Amino acid sequence: MPCILPLIHQLTGGEHPYRQRRDAALPRLTVRAGTTLGARDSPESVLADRRDSRRIESETWQCHVSDYVVVLPDPRLSAFICGPVFAKLRDKHRTLLVGLTAMKIETKAIHVGRKPEPGSHDVTPAIHLSTTFQKAADGSLPGGYLYSRPNNPNRAALEQALASLEEGAAALAFSSGNAATSSLFQALLPGDHVIAGDDVFYGTAVLLNNHLSKWGLKASYVDMRDIGALERALTPATKLIWTETPSNPLLHVTDLRAVATVAKKAGALLACDNTWATPLLQLPFKLGADVVMHSVTKYLSGHSDVLSGTLVFKETNALFEKVRDIQHEGGAVPSPFECWLTLRGLQTFPYRVRAQSQSAQQIAEFLSKQPKIEAVHYPGLPSHPGHKIAASQMSSFGGMMSIQVQGGQAEAFKLAAGMKLFTHATSLGGAHSLIEHRASVEGAVTHAPPNLLRLSIGLEHVDDLIEDLAQALR
Ligand SMILES: Cc1ncc(COP(=O)(O)O)c(C=O)c1O
Q: Cβ < 6 Å from ligand 1: which residues?
């Protein structure tokens, strides 16, 4: 564990950070996302100590410096590393995660993980296809990269961006959402017990039931809206509670704060599949989660042309390191091109999701007035049973909904086939609006009623989408 002061001295050629701190002309910068500063230094005591620079100088401050990310635990410490000191850190650590103090998600989506390439200075990063990286004469790695299964510049950049958007300490990128999910499950031990929502994404249940069960992982499923049922399902072996909110495809809303309280009491980890909400609308770490999972395939990459997933960790602890080993050694990693495409898509993600969410609200209101629609499942409707909880933990209600069509499965298929702009296809989160009959995709394990269609609202004009639904319902 390197110490932060020697590290800064080493990187800055001995300049003391406190001298830089007083230069008011320089922007205040935060260096964040990774770990702890000083085991015995609470942020308060560090701030108190900062007033006495002598004391600080003689202190040994410990921090992890992980994958070129130096982390300060409190944004108020941003003044500590500023101005030229920051610039030198950044130049030395090409992939250092940087945030302007109080940087907003739209700005982070564009800047974090990106910086002009040395040499060419291109603003849009290059795609690093090389699987191997040149070593120095002494065998060290001047660029920090050895081989592209453990890491690659495009993936490192993407992981920093994802960690920053979720306000986590670090992220690991995988070749799909399911690869991310199964890597977390693999970090548990045979005999450990997982509790998941009974309407969890069907692929997550398939992983647990058909594959992880064979190496001894136990799983049970509860209605996560029923905290009593969750408490009753706990066993001494429960190590992980897996939530997904809003859920796919029934849009059940889980009270993450309440589940986090149960998880903490039981000593279990809380993971949240945040694919549908995205970090624009919901930040599970703020609600008590320890790990956030995404199918990056969906909103984060956003154009239906990338298959990828991620796990974001609140802390870079032993669990993070274990899952990182599984990522490095298991090798279920996205290619440099997929990382590059995702970083490109991420730049517009907050604007896309905001527009999709606004359109979805209007469409849900329209559909809830249609006599041929039996039910609309959308947490933005005040009639939705999870509306109040969703409003307390989400800033808006997302671009996904499901509807139940009067007349059963045949009528549902007829409606899907009658759409002109909505494409009858699986997946979600892209620019194109999609509609899908879920029960026929999910097969025997489905919880979707036979007359249920799932809608992913795209980026077309909402008036055109409503007109498309109206003509199919006529
Ligand atoms: C909520 C949710 N979680 C996980 C996944 C799995 O992601 P992937 O298809 O990228 O493996 C999906 C895919 O539809 C999903 O909707």
A: 176-178, 201, 203, 244, 248, 273, 275-276, 295, 297, 307, 309
